[in-house]
Amino acid sequence: MSARASNHAYICSDDSQIPYYNNSVPSGGNGRFYITQNHPDVHCASSDDGSQKIGSGLQTFEAQYCTLESSSANGVHPAHSSASSHSISPISGSPLSHHDSHSDHTYNSPPSASCVTEIADLQVKLRELENAILGPELDIAYDSPESSLQPNVMATPENWRQLLGINTGDLKQVIIACGKAVAENDVRLTELLISELGQLVSVSGDPLQRLGAYMLEGLVARLSSSGSMLYKSLKCKEPTSSELMSYMHLLYEICPFFKFGYMSANGAIAEAIKGENFVHIIDFQIAQGSQWMTLIQALAARPGGPPCLRITGIDDSNSAYARGGGLDIVGRRLFNIAQSCGLPFEFNAVPAASHEVYLEHLDIRHGEVIVVNFAYQLHHTPDESVSTENHRDRILRMVKSLSPRVVTLVEQESNTNTRPFFPRYLETLDYYQAMFESIDVALPRDDKRRMNAEQHCVARDIVNLIACEGAERVERHEVFGKWKARFTMAGFRPYPLSSVVNNTIKTLLDSYNSFYRLVEQDGVLYLGWKNRVLVVSSAWC
């Protein structure tokens, strides 16, 4: 789950980022609206983290996926029971769910046809990979009479199920075993398990079946990136910009994750800037600018009059496709809202990835109160495990040097940054199973909108987590304990979220399923599904 949209592949290539051009917009209204551009040098490094993969040699994948962001707060409104008072216990690590999926496995539902590769074609390519690694003589041995005497050859599904202790039709066990076989470079077992997995998953099935379909895509993409595989892409019809925006908006409405993050961050910001007349918000991933619409309206109605507000919107080119253009679109949208409310407003556009941003791009002015927002963004910034430059910590130190009034952080509670492939694979399974279950209660399984939203707005992250390594893997989440350590080392101290913010989020969750859980601990808010923490919101100063 990320706060930007993309028409790019899984970021498994070393193509350079494409900068924006000609995003300047003339001043309007009372002259308080300006859009300025700061163009940092654009560069892209590619590296390998050394994790074990079958074969070598990275190729590009061209399947199209996107991630979450909404264009407005209006649209589909789900009908759910009120939020439960049950609690979850947040810990420094990402807690594991201790419940099994409560959905019935309808294994006879149709398998995914649009994005999951044909199993027969995959088997041919896996055999090619097997021959490249082990030599053609092993392939001959499998077909010879003597192969029946080899104890390591598992000729039937029943044989390998017994050896692995997998019950027939146990989808979760097959998903886990498949990832383990890939991690251990067991080509023959991988071929058998992928074939089995392809018969069990479906994009119109229960949550685990749907998740399994996209995890299968990730495994296929991972295998396809090496050896003599001829497989080039996971073909999937690319949506138009308007279609993509509608999918993102749907998920924004049926799941509270983004509203939770935006509302909690805005609550902390509104409290921190009370009585201030000149405010500068620096948003490190502004995407569509949805977060700031309600804050602008709230500041405009502030007793004593609104402040002069300036927003610096940082975003790379990945969000441009969903927006249908550059950051000037965001600036115009926010200006129109501010103008309608009578709030003086300026917008500064910085078309760059977060790790390309330096102080000179932020246009800091004397007398302004500075606020910095990291909503679902920092996990995309490479750290010391990817680059010796460690931009993740550099950005935090740079922000601290600005003496901000408050810094807001919203991140997924998942441990995928530096973990080896198989533990990361299991974490992906655990995290996204909870997310897919939460989506499942909101829309019918045969709802085409839901299938499109999952396919184009969630699958990209899943495939990137499983298929990619090194600089190509941009989904690098950390648990809150790690974020706390990073902020503390950069010189920050906690800025506890108030009870007002907590109560606002509780009211929000009244409109959603009772399995959502909200816990406040030491001024930090944890949003979870059943026993699994999914998102954490905190503030720092």
Strand order of the largest sheet: 1-2-5-4-3-6-7-10-9-8
C-alpha geometry: globular
Taking the sheet with the most strands, its summary is:
10 strands, mixed
The name CATH uses for the topology of the domain at 242-418 and 476-492 is Rossmann fold
Please tally the β strands and state the result: 10
Instruction: Work out the strand percent.
Output: 5-15%
- The radius of gyration computed from the alpha-carbon positions, rounded to a whole number of angstroms, is 24 Å
In DSSP terms, counting alpha (H) and pi (I) runs of 4 or more, how many helices? 17
CATH superfamily assignment of the domain at 242-418 and 476-492?
Vaccinia Virus protein VP39
Going by CATH, the architecture of the domain at 242-418 and 476-492 would be: 3-Layer(aba) Sandwich
User: Can you tell me the residue ranges where pLDDT is under 50 for at least 5 consecutive residues?
Assistant: 5-87, 89-118, 132-155, 226-235
CATH class of the domain at 242-418 and 476-492: Alpha Beta
- Give the CA-CA distance, first to last residue: 26 Å
Fraction of residues in helices? Answer: 25-40%
H/E element sequence: EEHHHHHHHHEHEHHEEHEHHHHHEEE
What class do helices, strands and sheet pairing give?
alpha/beta
Region (Leucine repeat I (LRI)): 169-229
Biased composition (Low complexity): 77-96
Region (Disordered): 72-112
Motif (VHIID): 279-283
List keywords for this structure.
541 residues; alpha/beta; Rossmann fold; 10-stranded mixed beta sheet; 17 helices; 38% helix; globular; TF_GRAS
Describe what this molecule looks like in 3D:
This protein is α/β, with parallel strands linked by helices. Among the domains are: 119-236 and 421-468, no CATH class; 242-418 and 476-492, Rossmann fold (3-Layer(aba) Sandwich). Helix content is 38%, strand content 12%. It has helices at 119-134, 136-143, 157-164, 171-183, 187-200, 207-224, 241-254, 257-272, 291-300, 320-323, 328-341, 391-401, 421-440, 448-457, 459-467, 480-489, 499-509, and strands at 25-28, 33-37, 278-283, 308-314, 345-350, 369-375, 406-412, 516-521, 524-529, 532-540. Strands 1-2-5-4-3-6-7-10-9-8 form a 10-stranded mixed sheet. Helix 5 packs antiparallel against helix 6 and helix 8 (257-272) runs antiparallel to helix 17. The two termini are 26 Å apart. Residues 5-87, 89-118, 132-155 and 226-235 have low confidence and may be disordered.
